[in-house]
Amino acid sequence: MTCRLGALCFDANDPRALARFWGGFLGWERAGDGHTLLPVDDTGFRLRFSPSSQRKTGQNPMHFDLTSTSHEDQQRTVARALELGARHIDVGQRPEEGHVVLADPEGNEFCVIGPGNDFLADCGFVGAVAGEGSRETGYFWSEALGWPLVWDQDEETAIRSPHGGPKITWGGPPLPPKNGKNRLHFDLVPDGGQRAEVDRLLALGAERVDIGQGEVSWVVMADPDGHEFCVLTPPEQT
Fold it and tell me: Where's the VOC domain (predicted)?
């Protein structure tokens, strides 16, 4: 038994506005609810924007790495993002690294990677969901999703769906301190029953957590590094 990655979810102060930004930037279609984006490429999961009254504080432990085919293509991508409402930010990147760090209208970081990046060479525009995390967590997510490891070196790990799409990466230690609930999290859809899937994930090293969700149909859990994710009920599968 496994589960599939249904969506990457953003906490958003204005979900519809943030969905408009990312939909326009990625060229993805908006679902009828106005705050879910449907991929038009091989990404394989949706983007969902959920209402939150909490303002962003600190750097997200997860962000997109977007690819470029040339320096001109990288510049066009950056210009398009800025035109839609993104801004340049400094997270300590060095000029020689060759990528441009931006933030969306609510401050969520993302990188536009320069051309010639071997690690993302066979990926699409959304090259990776890059995260802070330990090797243990990389192994956990490989087992949880049934995705093979495509990188395991020097405490850094990466997995990728057998069907292609973006890589999910973890940069290894040192890990930054976790301050409150993450603004980005994964929604998982079980192939079978929710309870059986929760039990399987617990056995792999996850734990159930209470973030004040109250009585809801999904189960909130955390991976070995404490990053939250949700296990939906199969009827929410679409």
Answer: 122-234
Percent of the chain with pLDDT over 90: 89
Is 238's pLDDT higher than 50?
A: no
- Given a contact cutoff of 8 angstroms between Cβ atoms, the answer to whether 189 and 4 are in contact is yes
What's the token pair of residue 219?
């189960």
Helix, strand, coil shares, percent, the chain, to 5: 25, 30, 45
Distance CA 124, CA 167 (A): 10
Measured distance CA(202)–CA(168) in Å, rounded:
21
Distance between CA atoms of 7 and 170, rounded to whole angstroms? 18
Question: pLDDT tens, 79-96?
Answer: 999 999 999 998 888 777
Q: Is pTM, for the whole model, over 0.90?
A: yes
Domains of the chain listed by start with CATH number: 3-170 (3.10.180.10)
- The C-alpha atoms of residue 48 and residue 141 are separated, in whole angstroms, by 20
